[in-house]
C-alpha cells in the first residue's frame, strides 16, 4: 500500500512543471522542508505525507499554468477578431428632406364623323423636413370638339376646355400635429369667363393622423382653417368676346385632405374645400375631387377621378356647377 502511494506521488512530481524564478517564498518553503526531510531518515507515514504535499503543489502549479494559457488565448482572440459591423439602417423608399413628385396625364381623342380632343395633366411635389413642409401643385386641361357633319360640308371645332392653375404652399410645423401655413396661387378658366384669379391665404393646418399600416396600406387626414383673399378678373371668350366687371373674394376657407388604402395597391383619395366670401355680395365656392387609384407597378398607377366645382355666383350666362369624370395615369418620380 505504501509503495503504490509513493509511486503515484513520484509520478505527479515528475509531471509538474519546474518552478519559475519568481516563485513566492511561500511556495519555496515547503520545498526546503522537503529537501531537509529527505536528508534525514523518515518514517513511512512522513514519507506518505510528503508525497501528498508534493502532489498538491504540482496540481496547483498545473492549474495556474492552465489559467495563464486561457488568458493569453483570450487576448489573442480579441486582437485578431474584427470589430462588430454597425447595424444596417432600415431601408426606406424616400429619405426625409427629398421631394415626392407625382405626374399625371389624361387623353381623349375621337375622329371620324365627330372630332374631339381633350388633354389634361397634373403635377404635384412635396418635401417634408423636421420643421417645414413645402408643396407645389399645378394642373391644366385643353379640349376642342367638332360636332357631327355631313360629307362635303365643313363645321368649325370649338374650344370646350381651357383652364390651368398653380399653387404654392409652405407649412411651419410647430408640433407634429399643428402647423401654420402661407399659400399663394393663380388659376384661369376661359370657358367659364374667368380670365384669371390670383389669391393668397394664411391659416392653420392640423394633421390628425398619418399612418402606414400593414402590407403598405396608408391612412392620412389633414384639415385646414384659413382666411383667403382673391381678385378675379372676368372676360367672356365664348361664344362672343366681351369684357366683364372684375370681382373680389375674401373670407374663411375650410379644407380637408383624406387618404385611405383600401388594399395594398388600391388607394382612395378625397380633397374638399369650401370658401365663403364675406366681401361684397354673398358668394360660396365649393370644390371636391374624389379619386380611386390602382397601383400597376411601384411607380405607375391608374386613377379614376370625379371633380365637382360649384360657384354660387358665376359670371353672367354661366351655370353654377361643373363636373368632370376622368381616367388618367400617374407616375411617381
Written description of the protein model:
The protein has one domain: Beta Barrel (Porin), CATH 2.40.160. Helices cover 20% and strands 52% of the residues. It has 333 residues and is α+β, with helices and mostly antiparallel strands. The N and C termini lie far apart (94 Å). A 12-stranded antiparallel β-barrel has the order 1-2-3-4-5-6-7-9-10-11-12-13.
Fold blueprint:
Layout: H1 2-15, H2 25-39, H3 44-80, E1 99-110, E2 115-128, E3 132-146, E4 158-173, E5 178-189, E6 194-212, E7 218-236, E8 242-243, E9 247-261, E10 266-277, E11 283-295, E12 300-311, E13 321-332
Helix pairs in contact: 1-3, 2-3
Largest sheet: 12 strands, antiparallel, barrel
Q: What is the domain tally? A: 1
Radius of gyration: 44 Å
Named at the architecture level, the CATH assignment is Beta Barrel
* Alpha plus pi helix count: 3
User: What is the CATH domain class?
Assistant: Mainly Beta
Determine the structural class based on helices, strands and strand pairing.
Answer: alpha+beta
> Which sequence of SSEs, written as H and E, runs from N to C?
HHHEEEEEEEEEEEEE
Biggest sheet strand order reads 1-2-3-4-5-6-7-9-10-11-12-13
Alpha-carbon distance between the termini?
94 Å
Q: Give the beta-strand count.
A: 13
- Overall geometry comes to elongated
CATH topology: the name is: Porin
| Low-pLDDT windows of residues | 1-9, 12-38, 85-93
Which range best describes the helical content: under 10%, 10-25%, 25-40%, 40-55%, 55-70% or over 70%? 10-25%
Q: In the CATH hierarchy, what is the superfamily? A: monomeric porin ompg
Roughly what is the average pLDDT, rounded to an integer? 81
The percent range for strand residues is over 45%
